[in-house]
Amino acid sequence: xxxxxxxxxxxxxxxxxxxxxxxxxxxxxxxxxxxxEPDFLRHIFPRINWDALREGAAAMGIxxxxxxxxxxxxxxxxxxxxxHHALLEVHLEExxxxxxxxxxxxxxxxxxxxxxxxxxxx
Amino acid sequence: xxxxxxxxxVDALAANLEAWQRCPPRLCLEVGCGxxxxxxxxxxxxxxxxxxxxxxxxxxxPRAAAATAQTLAAHQVRDRxxxxxxxxxxxLLPSIAGLVDVLVFNPPYVPTPDxxxxxxxxxxxxxxxxxxxxxxxxxxxxxxxxLSPRGEMFLVAVHENDPPxxxxxxxxAGFEARVALQRSxxxxxxxxxxxxxxxxxxxxxxxxxxxxxAAAAGAxxxxxxxx
Lengths: 122, 227
What we know:
The complex is a heterodimer.
Chain A (H helix, E strand, L loop, with lengths): L2 H4 L16 E9 L6 H7 L5 H10 L17 H13 E9 L6 E5 L2 E2 L9
Antiparallel strand pairs in A: 1-2, 2-3, 3-4
Chain B lengths: L3 H11 L2 H6 L4 E5 L5 H12 L5 E6 L2 H13 L6 E5 L14 E6 L9 H4 L15 H7 L2 H4 E12 L4 H10 L2 E11 L2 E10 L5 H14 L11
Parallel strand pairs in B: 1-2, 1-4, 2-3, 4-5
Antiparallel strand pairs in B: 5-7, 6-7
């Protein structure tokens, strides 16, 4: 699971109001090279929750993202490459995503997060 | 026989290749990825189109998710597609709202008693409840929220699902609807429907229209509230 996906996931248990962002508990992280595509990065940047990305990246051992980011940075190649790496090249293979409100853990196994709910949660 | 629907869907996607070369989608979502054949084909098509795109795939079945991972890896596109075990798009909304450029859904469309839809397990792959529409209708209510301003959706339907009514529902929700492909396979008459946001239609207006359309269909309300 990439941090791009993490940025779009939330705890959807019935009644939960602050289920975002999910906290990452990393057991196994893999970094795999992906084509560098500035077009994609510029397109997606305005919709990325920066704090969630930065927090998730830190949990996966990536701590070179700036504290805040604005659209002007998209002209900066060095920034784009860091953004690209954190967003698309760092994969959570094993671990868990934890709801910040309830502490419910959603396991991540073989890179696949399991957000399925039990019957009493929906 | 069980693969004919996937083949038809991928043929309809492939027919869109030129449009995607001109205007590449950035984020794609397949709901209910099953074996992974469709999302893998879409990833390969987008690579062929030179589109810098990322894909997401959901399924409720862990074995389907694992099969999809294997299919993607075998075709060297595993890193293009993230797989999430989730019901429809439930864990993705609302943060993915307005971001999906291409949405693909081959729902469980076989008419069955409604109870079979809830049974889970392998039946989830085909049990569609009354008119085979129970699951498709649940996702269609989310579509106005999910799709980006340029967003489009490809949906598999069979005759029993009443494709003309599906088209009317989506037209009422602010979409252009067309039949992308029709094919007879064994006992089934397959239709691939293609919906795209009507130009100039804002997501908000479309969502409001969808609420009306869904209400007319006897449904409970608009996206993105989970059930």
